[in-house]
Every structure is written in structure tokens, then in C-alpha cells.
């Protein structure tokens, strides 16, 4: 049986005796680090990556500290088997891991797991072999061999794959030439080094107000200590150009900079701007990066030779050797919140990282999170503003279309005012964006004969029709079935009707109304990764006239010809029990509307709504963000909700409904009394049945100063849940389902 060891904060060791016991943290959901003895001849440091025996197998871990002796019976410990040559994990990253684990109430090993996602990067670099021309022509010459020889240099060696691709032949042809003695082998470095970014040459001339903002951010970098700045400017005001100046200042001082973006905003277009600014591409880190490139990035970040990393939230867990700045672009995006496993918010953890490492953090947004605005108002964050759109582009005009006055015909979704505006825009050669945040064809299918509704057998959800795939699909668990011809309940044929709109159905309406327009659907189930990147580029280049999209299109893209935005349903999301529903709707509508008129021509956004008098809609139309925020802020303060109070969500789930309900009731009875924390529930979660598991939920409401984590530890640690019931803890939850 392995002994959980103590964490690293032990007495410093005397320098004369090498440490005999290492505390090794493993990337597993275990309580803490485990103790191992250090073989005499092995040089270990805190942070060293090591292999250790774990039961019948071996595992990779990180030395979290040393135990100078005492307490542990050395004789029973097993030896560390191997230490990797990789630079040890920096002390700052180890403190960050402990902090995140403590805050999110996750085992530190689960946080460590997010940091060692590229196991290949720990071993020795596997060098490649290159080939150069060194011998006479082969006796048997073929056109393919000729093409290879035309590509092979005498001075520079190239890899088989590289040569074969350049010559358009198979690797076998290259091998043949090696055997014939025409090419000779020599070792190549394993990975191409990252080009050093040049902070010197700005690619644009900043306007006066941009220069003022850039100066403030450069100042924060030069101070070399912890600060948080909010870069607050309308869409298109040049926030990216401005924070790139802070990145430049950081790189000029020789330190690494990390720019976080929501995954979806990491487009080729965006990355090109970095390359234009710095004369070299940044290191990229997101789900579309291939394994070999991941290894290259991980190693270069650990060595400190990749100076700029642009990535999605998981880039926060790369092994930065000397991080000097984190920028969180579109900081209000809920994509920064990870829901599964370690439930963390990358923006908040970036701020923590900055405070632990004493470096500046910059948040950029046109519609900051209320939490961030509150920190600005309290003076905790600096407020750096950009008032106008860059150049001649003004903000788009935003108008509500009252759907009570302009109801579309049954089975259609575009009102006359929106359809007329589309006709006019298309006539003028402009692009139109229609926003509808619903994937598929229709959110509900029912039988007209008997009223049967198609629901998921494993979740509390209707099945969504996806007409392209001819399937009914559950958006929670992925369950799908082919669209049947007959109703499974009453067996009536051809009586199934689609209810409500999805982007596919909207596309059908568009095709009917505008048969000559080139339309495209952007939705996560239809377009992913590379295809999506290509489509976004083609849209920016004007290859499409009408873009029909879900959330995917709302974020950060710059389409110069886009002049009209139509929000098909401006009411979705107002009041679904989520405390941030209004804030999010405002943010997303503002972002979507902000796609219009970013180029030369003025933009117009039309919002179809049944509640045109709603405070949110009137504030949008008046471009009165601060007025809307003040209204929201007052409501939150009144209800003591974040940022004026703290929340935590607890979800118990299991296959047996009785089992889960019983476990939840027992747990509820153990809840300690506290002045500052209220436990609400247990109650069935709003979606009470997902993937065949029943879910009961507690919501904890606490004052701002309450130590929620300490409360939860006191409550949960002594309590033993049945093994069939799983508990998920979410500190600062963003999802209330
Ligand atoms: P934001 O991030 O605030 O939405 P961007 O930084 O993306 O704004 O800028 C919007 C557009 O304006 C981009 O195409 C950008 O290159 C351009 N732009 C911004 N500032 C300047 C400038 N000073 N000179 C030239 N182009 C600029
Ligand atoms: Zn389901």
C-alpha cells in the first residue's frame, strides 16, 4: 500500500546530505504526493520530471518536494526509477498548480494532469535523419529519382518526408537513392526552433488614443510587477493592435508572453496579424494543433525559446520558463470556463498566475464581464479605454424589429423589415450575417396525429432534427436516430412536423427567398477545425453573400464587407434561470451587431424581438452599455449574487434515482451551520437526467468574504458518499443546468 506523502512545504534541507526521500506528485486524482526514495547516484531537484513505480506499473510525475527524513519509514519506499532531462517544472508553476487545486477543490494531481498532456515531450528529443546529395547519379535513373535529385542539396540535409513531398514521390524513392549511394544520411535537429519575434517594427501606426492606451499597457509591463488592466473598447477599436504593443514590450525585455483567446477566435486571420506585427509566427496551442507540433511547442515553452504563445484556455498550463505577461482577449467569454474535470475559469486563474508570479495581466473586451467591471469600479483593476472604432468606421446602427407588428408567415422566421434590408444590402454588394443560436433544423419534432414528441431516452431533452444528416439528435449526449417515416407511437405516416427554427431551417428559407445569393452555415456540428478556418477566411475574402451562424460567428471575426446583421431571435436567453442570462445576451448581441460595418461602409443590425421595450434591447439600440451594466449591477447587488456574493454548485449524479436522492438528503443533513453560507437544495438539477444519470443539485450562496472552500471541506471531507454516486464541485459556476 502506498503512503500519501506530505506536500512540499517542509523544513529546508541541509546541503551536506543529499535528500533521500522525494515527494512525487502524480497526474492522477489522488489526495497528494507520494513518497519515494532517491537512489544515491540520482540528481533530483524540486520540479524534476520523474518515472516512478506505481503498483504493478510505472507513472510519470513531478518532484513536489523532499522529505529530509523522519516520519516516513525509508525502508518501505520504492525507488524513483528515472529522471527526465527536461528542464524541471518551475517553482511558480508548481505553486500555481497547488493554488488552482485548492481553489477548485480538485486533487493537485488532476491539475498536474492538465500540465503534462504531451508525455513525448519529456523524453530525449528523437532526432530525425536528413539526406544530402553526396555521391554520383544512380545507375538506374527514373523520372521520380530525377525529381528527388532536383530537390536534394549538397549542403543542406532534408528529411525523407520533406524531400518526398517536395518531389511528389513516395519515401521509397528517397530510400532507393540512399541505397544507391547518391544520397547520404546525417542527423537533423529534432524540431525547428521558433523564430525570434521582432518587437521593433509595428505593422500599423497607432492613432492618438490607441497610443495613449498602448503607453499605459507598456508601463504595466515595464513595472515588472503584478497588476491587472482592463482594455475596454468597442469592437473594431483596435484593442488587438494595442495589446500587441504590450506583448512587444514583454518580448523586448526577454520574457515570455501568453495571449489567451476563446478557441474559436484562434483563426488563421488572427494569427497572421501576429506574424505581421512580429515578423515571425507565434507558438500556437489549441485543439487543432497536431501532436508533433504540440511536442515542439511544449519543449520550446519549457526552454524559454518560444517567446509568444497564442492559445486557448489550456495554454495556461504550459511549462513557461519565464512568463512576463498574460493577455486574455474577449475576457467575458464563457468559453474560458472549463466545466468538466477541474472546473476552472481561465481568466480568473490567469489573474491568480499573475499575482503569484508578480507579472501584469491584461483583459480585453468590448463587453467586459460584470465581475471585471466591478473590479475596475473598486479600483482593483486599471481601466484603459479606447473610445471609437478605428478609422472612419462608425458603430453600427442597432434597431429592434417588433415581431408583434411584423410576424413572419407560419413556418418562416424572417420578418419583412429584415428581409427588405437583406434585399437592399445584397443589391449593394454587401454581406449579410443572420444570427440564430440553434444548431440543426428544428429544436422539436412532433406527430400531428397523436401529439407524440421525440425526446432523448437518456436525457431531459427533446431531440433536435438535423436535416442534412437526416437524424434526430440529443444535444446533451449525442444519442441519435434516423428520422422515421411513421410515428413510433401511433404509426401514422408522414405526420411528423418540425417545430421552431434552427440554422438549417433558416438556410432553407434563405435559399428560397434569395436563390442567387451564396449562403453558408457556420455551426459547430457542421464545420470544425481546419474547415472552419478555411470558411472564415473565405467569408472575409467575400466568397459568400449570406452567412447563417450560431455563436461561432459572433466572436472576434473581422469581415470587411459585412454591413447587415440580422438577429433572428433576440429573445432567446432572457430568463432561463441563469443569473448571467441578461448579461450574456447583451454581450453576444453586442458582439454579433459589432460584426457589421467594420470596413468602409456603415453597418446596420436588426434585432427581431417580441419584447422591444426590454431594458436590454433599448440599451443595445442606444449603445448605452454602461447604463445597462449599472442596471444589471444593481440587480446583482440587491440579490447578493456575483460579483457581490459567491456561489458554488454541487451536483450529485448516479444511475439510480433513489440512490442519488437518498445520498443528497443524507449529505444535506450534514451541512454545517454558518452565518455566511447558505445551502440551497438539494433539488433535481434543471436538467435532471443526462446520459442516463440522475442529477441532484445544491447551490451554495455565500457572502463575498466567506471562505467557501473551507466551508465545503468541513462539510464534505468527513462524509462518505456511496461509490455509485459521483460528486462534482463547481466553484463560481457559470452553468446552472
Ligand atoms: P478590436 O480587437 O478592438 O475589435 P482590432 O484590433 O481587431 O479591434 O482592429 C480592428 C481593425 O482595424 C483591424 O483590421 C485592425 O488591423 C485595424 N486597425 C486598428 N488600429 C489600426 C491602426 N492604427 N492602423 C491601421 N489599422 C488599424
Ligand atoms: Zn441525450
Describe the SSE topology.
Elements: E1 21-25, E2 34-37, E3 49-54, E4 57-67, E5 82-83, H1 91-104, H2 108-115, E6 128-133, H3 143-151, E7 158-159, H4 160-167, H5 171-179, E8 183-188, H6 208-222, E9 227-233, H7 239-252, E10 256-260, H8 268-278, E11 283-285, H9 291-303, E12 308-311, E13 323-329, H10 346-357, E14 360-365, H11 370-377, E15 382-386, E16 397-402, H12 416-427, E17 431-435, E18 444-447, E19 464-466, E20 471-473, E21 480-482, E22 496-499, H13 503-513, E23 519-522, H14 529-540, E24 546-549, E25 562-567, H15 581-593, E26 604-609, H16 615-621, H17 625-639, E27 645-654, H18 657-670, E28 677-690, E29 693-703, H19 708-716, E30 726-731
Parallel strand pairs: 9-14, 9-15, 10-12, 10-13, 11-12, 13-14, 16-26, 17-24, 17-25, 23-24, 25-26
Antiparallel strand pairs: 1-2, 1-4, 3-4, 3-5, 6-7, 6-8, 18-22, 19-20, 20-21, 27-29, 27-30, 28-29
Helix pairs in contact: 1-2, 1-10, 3-4, 4-5, 6-7
The protein binds adenosine-5'-diphosphate and zinc ion.
Adenosine-5'-diphosphate binds next to helix 7.
